[in-house]
Each structure stands twice: as structure tokens, then as C-alpha cells.
Structure prediction request, 412 residues.
Amino acid sequence: MNENTHDNQNSPPKRYRRARLPRHPAVWWSRMKVKWPFLVWLVALVLAFFFFFFGGRFGTMIGVVDTVSDDYAPLEESRLMAIEVAAGQDVTEGQVLCRFDTALLDAEIAVQRALYVEARDSMDDYHEAILELNMEHGVAVTDAENQLLLETANQSRDQAEYEYLKGQVGKLQQDVDQNTVPFDVALVVARYKALSEGLKRYPALIDAHRNARDQAKARQALFHEWLSARSETEPQTRTALQRKTELHLEAISNQLALLELRREQYTVRARRPGRVSQILKDPGDVVVPAEPVVRVIETNALEIRGFIPESNAHDVMPGSTAYINRRSGRGQVLEATVTVIEPEVLGLPTRVSPIPGQVMRGRRLHLRLKEPTNEFLPGETVQIRLVVPLFSRFFGGSDSDKPTRTENQPGS
Prediction:
């Protein structure tokens, strides 16, 4: 009993047995609040780790400035005569770059011009043939008449000589019969006998020439009658021949125009402004068609080709914004837009790999600057910073990258 009395004396009163003590914060939280700088650094380390492996290295990539170049070459094989520009020189549109030898082409142009003049000034074949036939008939009639007049004159001359010799031979007939005349008198007698026989043949010969003249006149009359019969169709014939001549002249003119156009191509001119990059031939060289002689590049960059790694190939879409600057970090930062993303995943150039000597695979994309600039050199390697959603790989890309079911797919 004494023990129970002792216990009751040590126990608290009943009003204090159910009283609750106030709760205090946990000790570990108080300790952590004291070490808050450590927590800040820990969070920063986690974020840095995340951005390094999942976001940051894909937002920056390497690209190349597209080189827009024009190679100027002859269209025909020819000898290079002169080069009018030098490497590094700025040229304007239409400026002469080089000249080629046009000697053979000039000779061909001269021949065509001569043919044109001949076709323009000469008579057509039809009228030329008609004129020749008319002249032939006239010449035939004239020749026949001249031959008839000549034979008639010869007959009159021989007849007069015969009459004269006839009187002389009559006086010497007795001596002739006795063969006692001198030699020269004998020649006169022989001439007399020859004239006597020749005069007997003149009528037939004159009749033959007269018939030839009449036949020539008859043929000429028939020809004139034929011409008169064709007088009704002559306008149509003349029109057709005139049209034929015009077409012939037009063909020659077109040939001349073609030759002149070819001749202009022998003087090579710049098609757009730019800067001479290379001179690939020397004066005197024979250059075959399509073999470059001068190369001109554009100085204002407008297109950029970038390379995105395969692991982030679905995170960039056409229309995405990018910022371009030199790889060294110096110079202006220019804004560009992604215009084309090539669909294939290919091996990328070694120089775009973040690890030297390691080949990467990825997609190529084309970017277009807002405005042309001369900030970059053609072919220069540049740095591209794309505005890419860092969490797109976790929450999915755009609907264009998601496969769609079609009727040809199994289970559709």
C-alpha cells in the first residue's frame, strides 16, 4: 500500500495527462536549410547534365555557306583569243569575260551574205528559162537569114565573075583548043570552068537556107503563140515564183541570223554580277564545248547548308528559326529560316562531327538568310544555332513526323 501511495504521489495530475505538446519542424529540414548553397549547386548540376545530354548539343550545329558559281564555257570548239578579266575582279551583268576566234564563222557568214545578194538580185529560174528560149529562137532565125544572104551574095559575085571570064575565054578558045596558051591563061580558064559548075549548085543551096530560115521563123512563131496561150495563167505563175523567191530569201536570212547568234556566243559575257573565282584556261588554248574557262561566284551569301545529327533528326521542322555566325564567333549574328530538310539520313562530313575522326549520320537541311549578305565567304564553315524545343523528344514532334495509317497498311 505504501508503494501505491508512492506512485500516486509521483504521477502528474489527471488534467495534465492528456495535454499535447506543440510540434516542431523536423531536424533534417532545419539542417538542409542551413546547407541551401549545396542544394542550389546540386540542382544546377542536374540541369546541366540534362541539357548537355538531351538538348544543348543539338541546338548548335555546323553548316556551310553555299557557293553559287557560274562556269562560263564556249558552246562550240574554238580557240581562246583573250581573257578580259582577272581572278578576284568584280564583274557586272553583261561584262565581257573572254573572247574566242571567229575567223571560220566570219567566212561562213560572208558566203551566206553573198548567196542572199545573188538570190535577191537574180531572176527566177522560170523566167530565166523563158528568156533563154526566146533568145535561142531569135538567134536561130537571125543565123538562118544571115546564111541565106551570104549564099545569095556569093551567087551574085560568082555570077559576075563567071560572065567576065566567059568573054575572055571566048576570045582564047582557039588557043585553048590547041593547048598553046600560057600557064596563067590556063588558070583563068580553069577558074571559069569551076564557076560554071558552082553556079549550077547555088539554087539548091539557096533554097536550103531559105527553108532553114522559114523553119526557124515557124518555131519562133509557135513559141510566141505558146507564150500568148500562157498569158492567162502568167499572173498566178508569177505570184508563185515570187513567193518561192521570198521563201528562199527568208531561209537565207534565217541562216544568217543563226550564224550571227553563234558569233555572239564567241564573246562570253557575265550573266549576273559576281566575282571572278578562277581562270582555268590561257589565251591560245583550244577549248572544247562545255569546258569551263572562267568561274564567277556570287559574293552575297543567301543559302546555308546545315547538318543535324540522327538522334535529333525529328526535332527540326521547315520554318524553324536559326541564327548564323562565323565558327570563330566573331562578326554579326544573322537570322535564317529552315526551308528544306532532306528526308534521307546520310553520313555527314567529318568536319561537322563534335568528336574528331568520328563519322556521324544525320539529315541535311537548307537555311535561307533573311537578306543577302557579304558577311560570310562562299564555302565558309559557319555555326548554326537552332531554336529547338528541348523537350520535344519526350513529348513528341509535330504531326507531320507521325506515321499515318493508310488503306494499304496491314490492319487498316
Q: What stands out?
A: The chain is about 50% helix and 20% strand. Residues 393-412 have pLDDT under 50 and may be disordered. Residues 57-68+300-400 form a domain with the Elongation Factor Tu (Ef-tu); domain 3 fold (CATH 2.40.30.170).
